[in-house]
Amino acid sequence: MASAIDTANPDHPLQRAPGGPATDNRAAQARAHRKGGWSLGSRLGRTIVLLNLLGLGILVAGALILNEMRQGLVNARAESLAVEGQLVANAIDQSATVGEPAPMLVAGVARSVLQSLDIPPTERARLYDPQGRLLADSYQVADRVERRPLPPARRLGQKTSRFKFGLLLPAATRAKEARLALAREVAAALSGDAVRDVRIDEEGGRVVSVSVPIKRVRAVLGVLTLEAGDVDSIILHEREALIPFILIAIGVALLSSLVLTQFIAVPVLRLARAADRVRLSRARAIALPDLAERDDELGDLTRSLEAMTATLADRMVAIERFAADVSHELRNPMTSIRSAVETLDLVKTDAQRARLIAILNHDVGRLDRLITDISNASRLDAELSRNAPAPMDLARLLSDICDFYTATGKPGDPRVTFIGPPTPEPMMVVGREGPLGQVFRNLVDNARSFSPPGGEVRVFVSRGRGEILARVEDDGPGVPPDNLETVFERFYTSRPKGAAFGGNSGLGLAIARQIVETHGGRIWAENRQEGGRIVGASFRVALPIA
């Protein structure tokens, strides 16, 4: 027998129970070596942190991708360039074209017009003739000098390369592709329609480009190309503006993860340790008052575990007590049988031998009855859990039981009468018909055994407040007032004078109470009185109404 030990503080290291196995469950040992507090070593804690950061990472990546590919910014920049390019093309058309009816573009005048215009530093304007040859470049006419940092020093023979949206391309290849893209755009504009495009320049940067044909009537005299290379810098500024919010979001995600770990993962780990201690140290219950007081799901779990282990502890005590009671009850007939067998060889007359044999037969029958009732009682929990409860009419069940006793009764046996409500109506309860039938058969058998010959056992059923009430009455001597509760204990027997000894095992009423309480009901005993004297017993059962 293991005694209950204190488990109110289950955070100390696990100890193996004396006499227990040499090796315990590895998961339990792993939990035992983990420490409390901000334990990111627990799998649940790591999962909380990773999931929070994963969701945040997806959000951040999505924001950056949307900034990278935001088409609205590119379209707005292209639209402004188209308007600006059309104005510059109109100015060049008005000032630098001569000839009728075969107009032509005067290159020198066109350069002067382009030079006189205020082209922003972030833009570049180029002018091409009808053959696609470059006539003017705003970077050249404005005497603008391009500045860029020198590449890092490299060893002799080492080639340089640069990222182009994530791809490594040699500088020569990059410049060639940029020139080809520009040539294709100019050629498309020479067909007479304005062209918009997003290209990669010779430096690997992204530029928004608009090519506008310079036309006189239908004749295309040249092409003006405007490029804006500030899209990447605008996107970069937007990304930089997002950095403080991203850092704050990461901090909040980490803080919330740590809080969730502290309030979820660590208490769950404590519950696991306490459960291991109950198993390894043979404690009788889990006790974690600080968790049980929480008003959340973990508090519910803790209270449920405490109630479950307390119920199991009560069941263990009941089983131990039942085993002790069984041992005591079996010892009596066994002692009587042993005594009769030892005396059998010493008797000298047939009458004495016949008397001893009768005692042996009686004790064997009593032993058989005890073993049968003990077996039924031990299987009761399994039988109750095998079938799910269902709605049933208790009045119909009691009527069928009474009809059975009436049909199988012998002359002189007490009559069994069913008395239902004044108006026939179903008395619906939720239960198992087999076990509940056993309850009322036990009560009727008990009442018949106490009733005088030719007496009557009455079975009543009625509707109460939120429950169905049934009672079984007899006309016997009643129950001693001090034993109204004791009669439901196992192996308790109190028979009237003249009744055969050992005819009952004392388990019928105990089984009846166990079945009724399993169905959420109550059972109790009362004495019927008339004129201040006891005229019989009344056993009452109350079951919740369906």
Defining key terms:
five-stranded mixed sheet; Beta-Lactamase; 14 helices; rod-shaped; Helix Hairpins; Heat Shock Protein 90; 546 residues; disordered N terminus; 3 domains; alpha+beta
- Helix count equals 14
User: In total, how many beta strands?
Assistant: 16
What radius of gyration results from the CA coordinates? 49 Å
Strand content: 15-25%
The CATH superfamily title of the largest domain? Histidine kinase-like ATPase, C-terminal domain
Structural class call reads alpha+beta
Major sheet: size, sense and barrel closure? Answer: 5 strands, antiparallel
How far apart lie the N and C ends? 42 Å
Mean pLDDT, to the nearest integer, reads: 76
Q: Which regions have little confidence, pLDDT < 50, spanning 5+ residues?
A: 1-39, 158-167, 498-503
Specify the overall morphology.
rod-shaped
State the name of the first-level CATH class of the largest domain.
Answer: Alpha Beta
Major beta sheet, strand line-up: 4-3-9-8-7
Instruction: Estimate the helix proportion, in percent.
Output: 40-55%
Q: How many structural domains in the coordinates?
A: 3
**What CATH architecture of the largest domain would you give?**
2-Layer Sandwich
Order of helices and strands: HHHEEHEEHEEHEEEHHHHHEHEEHEEHEE
**CATH domain fold name of the largest domain:** Heat Shock Protein 90
What does this structure look like?
The strands form five sheets. This protein has a five-stranded antiparallel beta sheet with strand order 4-3-9-8-7, sandwiched between helices. Strands 11-13-14-16-15 form a five-stranded mixed beta sheet. By secondary structure, it is α+β, with helices and mostly antiparallel strands. It has three domains: 70-142 and 159-229, PAS domain (Beta-Lactamase, 2-Layer Sandwich); 285-378, Orthogonal Bundle (Helix Hairpins), CATH 1.10.287; 385-544, Histidine kinase-like ATPase, C-terminal domain (Heat Shock Protein 90, 2-Layer Sandwich), CATH 3.30.565.10. The chain is built from 14 helices and 16 strands. The model is unreliable at 1-39, 158-167 and 498-503 (pLDDT under 50). The longest helix has 50 residues, at 231-280.
